[in-house]
Amino acid sequence: MTGPDNGGGSSRPERHRSLRNRVPLRLRKPVAWHRQGATWREAKPATIAGALKRANALPSGNWYVIGASREIGGQKPFGRSVAGTDVVVWRDTKGRLKAGPGSCPHLGAPLRDSPVVCGTLVCHWHGLALEGDAFAGWTPYPVYDDGVLVWVRLDATGGEAPLDRPVLPARPDLMGSVAAVYTTVGTCEPEDIIANRLDPWHGAWFHPYSFIDLKVLDTSHGSSPDHEDGFAVDVSFKVAGRAVMPVRAVFTTPEPRTVVMHITEGEGEGSVVETHATPLEPDALGNPRTAVIEAVIATSGRPGFAIARAAAPLLRPLMRSTAGRLWRDDLAYAERRWHLRSKGKFPG
Which UniProt keywords apply (predicted)? Predict the structure, then answer.
């Protein structure tokens, strides 16, 4: 005779799955770095080059990421040279963004060094006051704040058909997320930054302190004409000791100078990491320089994530530090790639 179900038998796998859902960490037996599976055969140069070519063919509408939304306030302007074009951005008294040439039309003063007074940018050389509208030879640029990043449209620089707004990737609800932006600069071109992000195979080898058990599942994800090009990847993030956090991530390119990593399964599902490559002015030797502006937008369906949102001011420096450690390595990759390309020696 079979008695009533008292919680044994087939219910155990269900309890096991429930526990795995509640506890995102896994314990992994350590494997020496040099004993992990080699990925050079899968990381075909033609595959990376093909993904880069398809990304470069996408429209940008002449929009460039200039910086983080939090960097641009109403007390002083924010300035950056985009592809050799000086740009200045500030906010008026209502918080609205204003943008235009970073050189004063009078005698060329650097407007990024001038103060903002009651929402008006006042040149510190001779007092030319700019409220954001066309005036005295100064013509504004279209500007867009997506809530995390600020974009500026430079039609003369981009040379494409302009779009009314940037091509933005899907994001989690910002009200239920924690966002941080990290910026660094390297001696390379935007394509070298994008190529680095379109090579997920290097992750566990080049960043063993952060990633382990990386496997590229699909190199054709979204490669149809109706979807973004990208890669699907299973990878575990190292937490501490043997503890790891396995996730599935999908890398896509919504426009030529952006690669986005979406967490599609595992802890932090819905979170994104956006890597934007903005060309700057060349250095004193004429070498290209590119700003990497990376936005990390973290979210979670766990009830405890509300505490994380409340602690966002403390979390953002940690998120930037984590991104910075990875980009110290990845910039070396991108700069080496440009160095070889500039000499005609790049094997890819």
Answer: 2Fe-2S, Iron, Iron-sulfur, Metal-binding, Oxidoreductase
